[in-house]
Amino acid sequence: MALLAANNLSVALTRGGSAFPAISDLSFQLEPGKILGLVGESGAGKSMIGRTIAQLLPSGFSVTGGTLDFAGEDLVTMAPEKRRRLLGRDIAFIPQEPLSALNPVLTIGQQMREHLARIGKTEPARWREHALAMFAAVHLPHGAELLDKYPHQLSGGMCQRVLIAMAFASRPRLLVADEPTTALDVTIQARIVKLIEEMRQHEDTAVVFITHDLRLAAQICDQVLVLYAGRPAEYGPARDVFARPAHPYSRCLQLASPGMGSERRGLFILPERMPGLQAIKTLTGCRFADRCPNVVAQCRTSEPPLAKVDGERVAACIRPEATAAIEPPPAAAHAKVTGETVLEASGVSKDFVTRRRLFRAPATFRAVDKADFVLRENEFVGIVGESGSGKSTLARLVVGLESPSQGRLTLLGRDVTANRTSERAFRREHLQIVFQDPQSALNPRRRVAGIVTQAMEAAGGGTGTERLERARALLDEIGLAPETALRYPSQLSGGQKQRVNIARALCALPRVLVADEIVSGLDVSVQAQLLDLLLRLRQERGFSMLFISHDLSVVRYLCDRVLVMYRGEIVESGPTETVFAAPSHAYTRALLASVPPDDADAAWNRDDGGDLALVERA
Amino acid sequence: MFATIAKLLARRILVSIPILLLVSMLLFMILRVLPVDPAAMSLPPNATIEEIEAKRVEMGLTLPLPQQYAIWLSQVAHGDFGTSIQLRTSVTRLIGQTLPATIELAVLAMAIASALGIAGGLLLFYLRGTRSETVLDVGSIALLSLPEFLWGLFLILLFGVWFEFLPFTGVLSAGYQKPDITGFLLVDSLITGQFATFWNAVQHLILPAFALGVSFSPPIMRVLRSSLLDVYQDDYIHQARLRGLSERRILIGHALKNAILPTLSLMGVQFGFLFGGTLLIEIIYSYPGMGNLMVDAIRNTDLPIIQAVGLTYCVVVLVISILVDSLYLILNPKLRTR
Q1: Which residue ranges does UniProt annotate as crossing the membrane (chain B) (predicted)?
Q2: In this predicted model, what pLDDT tens digit does every residue of A444-474 receive, in sequence order?
Q3: Residue A54 to residue B241, Cβ atoms within 8 A
Q4: Fewer beta carbons under 10 A from the terminal one: N or C of chain A?
Q5: CATH level 3 topology of B98-288
Q6: pTM of the model
């Protein structure tokens, strides 16, 4: 019998007397010991399902129909007190942001103890033993010391292990993991996923695995449910869905993410955005119709029902046989860049003072160690490595937010190492940075026009009309409507904000752009749009870019050359294709191994990533 | 943890020295600029010009100002604030007699403000989104908008005059002996086992402390409520719910410990203001503390007392802020490991 079964489950937001559907007619069955993957872009309703299981819906949302049975009992109609007793005991959750999911003012031990007391499986006096046993099970070293630490003293991966230890302490029957690896490094992702699989096997736990990464889902899940705008698009065995997607949306998602397969392919650009709650209400016909490359007139008349495609697979499409014909555009070949050098670093190092000592030289930590590289005209160079590898520090050195402790930085033939006032002006003119998080990088109280033309302020301003005109031209260039100029950042979507962020950097026509993780945290469809935009802008106006990313597939798609950083050192560099096809450094091999393969049938050999002692920082 | 706190204490005390020097300089200079002559004031009204001149030389008032300041400062550093012009007793002794009473009043008032503020904040948060919250909210603004001296008068009228519930002048009723060991009446009466005296003293303290405390509670209440609302947006609260913890446990065990931090900084700042606020309350309740001493001294331009009281206020405020910072460090592990 299924442990968790949804039958025509619907969730809606009720506001002003009308209901806006967030999840419509969802049905699935999850057996003990199996993993169900919920896949889709943000806003598809994946996390809403997790919240529905706990019945902790955001205010205004409620279940409007159907049932959600856990071990034969409907979670929706269950008495709240009874449901609460199930949570943490029989149903455990692993969150997306491990660092913020632990209380910052309590030690790990205090939180572990509270949780163990709550689930009541150990005598209170023996909680320590149990906690340490759980830490050992999730491969957390130095468990006893860990108990006295606070969350901020641990890395994200370690916090996630603590949370997994908590989740499995009660031997739950169901585990809900909501993007458990999104906020973590790739090498850690592989090991966390492995850990969840291990624990599942050991305890015969059923797992709901929420992810935006179809490739990851294909690797670890038994079943996959692809959601689009709150409706199931496709549901079936994971390998079938990945190998031969039946719904155009599954296929498009797959093609929108850059592959790691032997052949480099272009990205499928899904146009526009998923309809929001408001739009869904008034939609007739297929919710995906507006973005579907296979759309026909019939798609818009009525919502296609979930119909059997093959074997155990169902898809909500009237022409699933046409899906396989959707092909990605050919890949833009990597440029063989031979132009002049625009940026050069020779022996650049950066030491940070970790502790000042009286009468002795301060203790230092070397974040970047003797970095040498060149960036040529119109070249995109990727810097990859995990957090703490020094890639962001290197970016900050290049931009002038930090000064190198040693070495030399040359921009367009001019030495800018010292970072004096005159050099700063020169740097500002020719080099710009795009920050990772547009949400915090854009001033929420300024209109888009003011934000994107900020560079003009330093150069003396220009009149309001001049700036507005420049803003409109820039917005046009990055593919936003001119009326966006008068909006505020809060009125834009995540992808639009990142476009504005890029437009701001481009305003002064810089020769070099430094981009720090600018597509991480975005949906694959938005990511594909932005990567496409960067390539197009290079073609149209020409600029060089240092592209920092932890996502190897994105770097492979976008960058001509790649630098691999490990503990502050550039351990390998070369043309992207060469480095990825035949990595020479063990660390590069480990990085590559930690990415789930393109082919669902290929074994994902994650032990490579685990064996190399990529010690998580304590 | 103790090492970090010791380090903080050392740094803060070091920083306090220049602050105290600056304040002492200001106090000294400003009072010298006043058009009063301490020499003339300390002599009978029929003294001759020559006698006054002689007194000026004796008091050192003819010396250059920096030198006068240096002399005064070195005396102060030795705990000698000079002699009161009006009362003709040691100012240090006067401060020693009145400061404990004022500290007792301020501490009790702060305790009342904190208790009311934290309870009110929790209540406001608990009632969030209901009509009672709006009512309570308006009520707290009303509390806030009444200044403490009006509270003082109002409470005297209500509990002292109409209901004749509580005494409202002095620290003890007639017939009670004041024990004198540490100078703190509540402490002394407990040490010596005079519980009747202790109870009488508490009764005398209730009205002034409440008048002072109640007007300081609304900001605490509102800051606690809004930081609780913020904290409830955090992931760990959601995660605690997903772990099946009860709402009560989440509020007390998880949310409050985080939400109390901004509230604590506010309370530190408020205690400084509250200490200054004792002045008016002491006068209204004829409470024999430093405030009354100060007002009398100002009325009589008794410069040594004004200087001494001013400096004492400054020291007390500095000590409070150092204490609050240490407490903050104890409660916030993130600051400790920086």
Answers
A1: 12-34, 105-127, 139-163, 196-216, 259-285, 305-331
A2: 899 998 888 888 877 776 788 888 888 888 8
A3: yes
A4: N
A5: MetI-like fold (1.10.3720)
A6: 0.83
